[in-house]
Design a protein that fits this description.
Keywords: DNA-binding, Transcription, Transcription regulation. With 240 residues, the protein is of the alpha+beta class. The chain has helices at 5-18, 31-38, 42-54, 84-89, 109-115, 154-157, 161-169, 187-193; strands spanning 58-61, 65-68, 73-76, 95-106, 122-132, 135-145, 175-184, 200-209, 215-224, 228-231.
């Protein structure tokens, strides 16, 4: 299938951004300039530019035009010992975890089954956000049964939860299973991510287990699609 003109133009412009032809903060060429360069209609260029804004490559300033945006926060999905703040430091960014809310709720059907606990057993429901250079990029809702890690405190939750589980409660996470999907921000998600309702977001559902297969934590995380990208690393053993 032949690629549409606006898709071709968008890919070419993304490549220019990634190779620093257009650098962060540079004012982007106008619609008229791009129409002349690619010999296409204003409508075609406008579609390409709108998608670049939606995908976080450009930002628009009313009355001034479009500018190249800061690079997206890059996080590693595959196994790594680098925590959130360390990953951002490597990219020259300041990372911060903020506790938005913590409450104790009774276990019901889904959580009772997931954690293999009794009806009404207490579960800690934790809402946190993660920011890069003071811009919120992630909103997370996590669940940890009280009897696994009783009394999780603010200072614990504004750092690495897994490190806290290991050092304070003697629980080591042995395995995580993650499901990645695309979702649209609802009112609650948009509030915490500080974005528009309906904005595309990455959604990651995580189940964390100890070495015996006991589920210690379950979380749902939402990432701004215009602020976040993911890197997956795989290591392969050479055939003997």
């Amino acid at each position: 299938m032949k690629k549409s003109l606006h898709a071709f133009i968008k890919e070419e412009l993304i490549e220019r951004i990634k190779t620093d032809v257009y650098k962060v903060g540079d004012q982007f060429p106008t619609e008229n300039e791009l129409c002349k360069e690619f010999n296409v209609s204003r409508t075609t260029v406008r579609i390409a530019l709108t998608q670049l804004v939606q995908e976080g490559y450009l930002i628009r300033q009313r009355g001034k035009g479009s500018f190249v945006a800061e690079p997206k926060v890059n996080q590693i999905l595959s196994h790594t010992d680098d925590r959130f703040t360390q990953q951002l430091q490597a990219q020259g960014k300041y990372g911060q975890i903020s506790l938005e809310k913590i409450e104790v709720i009774p276990a019901r059907d889904s959580h009772k089954k997931r954690f293999n606990i009794e009806e009404n057993d207490p579960i800690q429901k934790i809402k946190r956000t993660r920011s890069a250079n003071n811009e919120v990029t992630q909103y997370e809702v996590a669940y940890v049964p009280w009897n696994f890690a009783p009394g999780l405190k603010k200072e614990y939750l504004e750092a690495s939860l897994y490190k806290t589980l290991k050092e304070t409660y003697g629980i080591s996470i042995h395995k995580t299973t993650e499901i990645v999907e695309i979702t649209l921000a609802d009112k609650d998600i948009s509030h915490y991510l500080q974005c528009e309702v309906g904005q595309p977001c990455f959604y990651i559902e995580t189940v964390a287990e100890d070495k015996n297969g006991l589920v210690i934590e379950f979380s749902r995380s939402y990432f701004r699609g215009d602020k976040t990208s993911f890197r997956i690393e795989r290591y392969y053993q050479e055939n003997e």
